[in-house]
């Protein structure tokens, strides 16, 4: 049986729909709290799939959050062997940094809310990605940092505010700045957990909730197909 390891940074930012598809595909899933675990004790080559999830801190804050250095080393070791790896939001930024790209605060402010993504220059090289490029499909964005495209990575998606929204390395690594894994029901935890951020950004929870009700079900359906296509690639 194949094994997936998920590194999470906030309990409520979980695997969501990706977890459902991993179980359907026969994976067993272990979830590790990256903030408190001994990441150097983890064999980076052991899992069949590594998933690095989101969180509100910056990759560049390793002095404040020392575990980030160990997490980056784990990711770097895995990528060197071209083993299947997915990074979502902070996870995508960690992937980019592990590959030598710069990660930094975005100059266009926080991108929080539901909006479409546009095809990147290399999107056609990865047919599985078309599931997220369907016209009128809105995807949840929730970030303030951004990253440069890593060397030799294929550019999959952009938005008007931030051009680097998704990238791939062949068939083995996938970085997603946005959140295709979310479900409308689980987002209720996000509204509480990120309450201070939302207040500071002057974003209405009521409007986010309504947008999630409208756009969430279609994203969940598209994400199901998207995860299945990537896992079977």
Protein described:
By secondary structure, this protein is of the alpha/beta class. The chain has a single domain, classed as Class I glutamine amidotransferase (GATase) domain (Rossmann fold), CATH 3.40.50. It is built from six helices and twelve strands. It has helices at 17-24, 67-80, 90-98, 187-193, 195-200, 205-232, and strands at residues 3-8, 28-33, 49-52, 85-88, 103-105, 111-115, 118-119, 139-143, 145-147, 154-158, 166-169, 173-176. The strands form three sheets. The protein has an eight-stranded mixed β-sheet with strand order 2-1-3-4-12-11-10-7, sandwiched between helices. A two-stranded antiparallel ribbon has the order 5-9. α1 links the parallel β1 (3-8) and β2 (28-33). α1 runs parallel beside α6 (205-232) and α2 (67-80) packs across α3. The longest helix has 28 residues, at 205-232.
Q: Uncertain runs with pLDDT below 50, 5 residues or more? A: none
Assigned CATH class: Alpha Beta
Task: Summarize the biggest pleated sheet.
Answer: 8 strands, mixed
Q: What do we call the CATH homologous superfamily?
A: Class I glutamine amidotransferase (GATase) domain
The domain tally reads: 1
> How many strand units?
12
Instruction: Please identify the structural class as seen in this structure.
Output: alpha/beta
The best one-word shape is globular
Total helix count? 6
What's the order of the H and E elements? EHEEHEHEEEEEEEEHHH
Strand order of the largest sheet: 2-1-3-4-12-11-10-7
Q: Percent helix among the residues? A: 25-40%
Strand residues, percent = 15-25%
Radius of gyration: 16 Å
Mean pLDDT: 97
- The termini sit apart by 18 Å
CATH topology: Rossmann fold
Quickly give the CATH architecture: 3-Layer(aba) Sandwich
């Amino acid at each position: 049986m194949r094994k997936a390891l998920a590194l999470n940074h906030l309990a409520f930012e979980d695997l969501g729909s990706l977890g459902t598809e991993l179980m359907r595909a026969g994976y067993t899933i272990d979830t590790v709290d990256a903030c408190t675990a001994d990441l150097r004790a983890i064999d980076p080559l052991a899992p069949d799939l590594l998933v690095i999830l989101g969180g509100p801190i910056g990759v560049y804050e390793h002095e404040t959050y020392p575990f980030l250095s160990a997490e980056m080393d784990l990711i770097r070791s895995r990528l060197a062997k071209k083993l299947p790896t997915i990074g979502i939001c902070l996870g995508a930024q960690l992937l980019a940094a592990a590959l030598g790209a710069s990660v930094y605060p975005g100059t266009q402010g926080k991108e929080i809310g539901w909006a479409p993504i546009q095809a990147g220059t290399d999107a056609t090289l990865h047919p599985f990605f078309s599931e997220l490029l369907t016209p009128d499909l809105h995807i949840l964005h929730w970030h303030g940092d951004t990253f440069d495209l890593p060397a030799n990575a294929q550019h999959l998606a952009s938005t008007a505010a931030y051009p680097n929204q998704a990238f791939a390395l062949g068939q083995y690594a996938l970085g997603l700045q946005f959140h295709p894994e979310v479900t409308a029901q689980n987002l209720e935890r996000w509204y509480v957990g990120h309450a201070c951020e939302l207040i500071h950004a002057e974003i209405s929870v009521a409007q986010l909730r309504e947008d999630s009700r409208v756009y969430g079900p279609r994203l969940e359906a598209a994400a199901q197909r998207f995860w299945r296509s990537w896992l079977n690639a």
